[in-house]
Design a protein that fits this description.
single chain; about 270 residues; alpha+beta; Jelly Rolls; Arc Repressor Mutant, subunit A; 2 domains; six-stranded antiparallel sheet; four-stranded antiparallel sheet; 10 helices; 12 strands; about 45% helix; DNA-binding transcription factor activity
Length: about 270
Amino acid sequence: MIQEKATLSRSANLDNLLLFQARYQHFRFDRHFHDEFALGVMEHGVQKFHCRGIEQCAPKGTLITVNPDEIHDGMSADQGEFRYRILYIPYALLQRIGHGMVAEGRSHCFKNPVTFDRQLAIKLSALFMMQADPQSEVLELQSCLYPIVATILSRHGTERDRLPCYTKKPQPVAKACEFINDLAQEPLTLDDIASAAALSRYHFLRLFSDAMGVSPYAFLLHRRLQIAREQIRAGCSLADAALAAGFADQSHMSKKFKAAYGITPRQYQKAVC
């Protein structure tokens, strides 16, 4: 049995981007979504994940290209080991690259969660190797990363409004999302959220799950994890971050954090603070 391991680090010589590196076999991610673009490469094995309502498979040598707010999980496709690396690219940075090197006036996104482009996968793998070399210079890495992102957007990109996860939500669902975002730290009930949406709890639960791809609780949990990460980045202790985000305690937060992101809050704290 392999030793499963995941690390998160900030690349000081590459625009301070967060780099995630993982080796898994039995670990399964809970359904979650990120605030940034996830751009990575599969280095070994086959990972499968559910995204956009279907099962996606990412074998060795493929690119992982997941947009912000796209709900997904993650696991081994064949019960074997899989390894990959991912850069988390902030929305604003990717748009600057897209506007400056591809096309102005577009809201750039990745077309598919898994991208088959061997040439770009090789280039991204080379970038990861360069990034790990302490002798690599900032200019060298930037000169490699930006063309890779631009080429992906040119070959395999689309506009934000064309993707299903960014289509306009039904008004009751939009109201519910706003309600949850505003009161995520509170002990909300299904009746509380359904009332804000002006629907019965049963009608609301079906409508929300169909529109969002997750349950109201899963959406609430993601918002709490967002708040926890914000608190950690602001320098709060893990215990204070847990309480500020609406978790019962630090242990409760840690369990949900690891299930969603594959690392502990302590690992995240060491990477961002």
